[in-house]
Fold each of these.
Amino acid sequence: MYDVIIKNARIPQGDETRLTNILVKDEKIVGFLENVDNVESDEVIDANGHLTLPGCIDPHVHFMYHGFPHRENFLTGSAAAAAGGVTTVIDMPCCTVPSVRSVEQLKLKNDLIERQALVDYALWGGVTGEDVRNDWLDNVQEQADHGVVAFKAYMTPSVPTFPRVEDPEMYEAFKAVAETGLPIGIHAENFAICDFNVKKLEKEGRMDGPAWAEARSELAEKVAIELGISFAEDTGARLHIVHMSTGIGAKLVKEAKMKGLDVTSETCPHYLTLNYQEAMTEYGPLAKIAPPLRTKKDNELLWDGLNDGSVDFMGTDHAPYEIESEKLKEGMNIWNSFPGIPGVETMVPVVVSEGYNKGKISLSKLVDILSTNAAKHYGIYPKKGAMHIGSDADFTIIDLDKEWVIEPKKQASMCGYLPMEGMELKGKVAKTVVRGHLVYQDVDESILSDLTDKELEELVHNYPEGVEDKYSEIFEQYPDLYSREYLKSYRKDHPELIDKHIRGMRGITAKPGFGKFIKRQSIQVLPKKLEF
Ligand SMILES: [Zn+2]
């Protein structure tokens, strides 16, 4: 007797597929059977012969909770993941109040988000210039011991609660993280170059969208990656370049791998499909991100990088902002609007449509870059990222033939904009399964539609009982855990819009709180596989 059978699943086997049925017991895969006519189970999920991947992973999201609830919360962010076929997200440490740089902050964050999560999640730890200056680097090993998968550091200013590292501070951070055996992910843009160019172009009176991309130049990313590689070589740290946007970046990472260094990289769907000249002209602040969109040539070089192994896997840098107060507010322009776009909901379909379906990448590459490689790199494989006996029964079921158009206003993310608006895709997520439970299917109905005002009040707008007492020291420092941006936001004055949005999300079949915190299982190093 099994708990669930995933029927008619077309699973990848290298670059071929095989039609089978997947048996699930206690939320794990326990077998594959060609014929299940006489096999009993409590539940059947029909994959309808669709491609069924091991659950896809977005290892780079900013769900903005708690601290920036006008942008997203963990319920809407993880609903967007579910709708996008993402069964595990790895949330960044920076876009919360307080940011995550100690175990206590990590625990507080987990207490606030776990009741909202719809898919499984792991967490990044953090290290900042302030931690180096104040001699707080003991927190690094403590966070590692508590199950974070990696550490994030910023070379450029991003969130006020997560100060950037100066170059020598970054060196100290590398040394501390190297001792844990975990990767250090850097936002690789040289701050001095970016700052100088932004001021220069602003002074010249440039107000067009592309000016942002020209200011945050390719050179700024190049020298930042070069510095990171030098520090990695010197300290033995495992360097990971997050959201790498340039072809030159892929080349540098490849060379570092060839030298035997533990250097890895990820890129995002927008760096593979959009270019700054078109998208930033059309969308202005709504296409503003850091690092910025690049050129068509970079799109192609990054696809090449995925194929030759210099780009290891996909992430999205999902970072939604509020249109009314942070993107298109009166008086805002390309310089003072906030940089960030969403992505967790469209990563899988964009890579399937523009990569696999167009013949740019093979099936085995698709599985590696959307699921397996990130799981290995962050030490959660083969619990996640695999279709083995004993792996969690996480599946992304994709209708490869379904044609559809991206409509940001219909997305589960609260964001409401995306410079991929109107993009015509072939390939859509049909069902998302986490630990053998259906969490999303491509229909209009959702079990969240009848959440009451009171339930939403408790789930989204209030702290769980006891949290304020338990973390009284943190609450003393940050009395209500809200950012200044939240206090100036539109949704602060219209919290009912958040409720309305949650009730209007489509296809969700899991209850908030279903998603689990996945601690890093072990330290694993992704094997270097370069193609020549
Ligand atoms: Zn990011």
Amino acid sequence: MTELLYLRDSYLCETDATVQTAGENTVVLDRTVFYPGGGGQPSDTGVLRWPDGERRVTETRRDGEAIWHGLDGPAPAADTGVRAALDWDRRYAIMRHHSALHVLVGAVYRLFDARVTGGAIYPDRARMDFSLEDLSKDRIADIERETNRVLAENRPITVRFVTPEEFARSNLVRLARDLVPKDLEQIRVVEIEGYDAQADGGTHVARTGEVGGLRIVKTENKGKANRRLEIQLIAPRTDSG
Ligand SMILES: [Zn+2]
């Protein structure tokens, strides 16, 4: 079992850890800052160092309660003490795009009552699919304007853990509730304060101002009542966060 440090602190980019299980080119650590991928957010990359070795972490994936770190060469033995460090610039760019999508989701819901049907996040862009039938130029402009308005308000983005009962009572939830696993004792909720809340396992920036602004650079028709919006960020992060 791996302690998932990123669930409570998305800004933690390094940790000491101990190898629990070693495969040929993979290790499970007792704790990690590496996000294993999921919910449209890609897995983290980085580096693993120990007294007589160093490897690139080329991918990370989750298997039950364990996080496997894929390495670019033979793994250190079980019980080795290591230092695990993320590629922070890449992760931070992903965090900014992930948080941007949550604001976008809130905007599309408020404007058109449309739900999310899928999405993907990259370090330099992100896309989200919505249950929308019609996406005129005017609508795209409205979505962009509303999203940028909320980003500029520099709202706090918080993470908290709630029971399934508390979650069901929440009136801010935008995703189909069936998507939330029913056997969880606690559900992690990411909230753009006063605007949007999602059950979410990913990593986010602390305030919307860190995202800057965005542009909708592409739209695609992905079938009846399904429209894809692709975004790119246009402003560097502010230092107000
Ligand atoms: Zn998310």
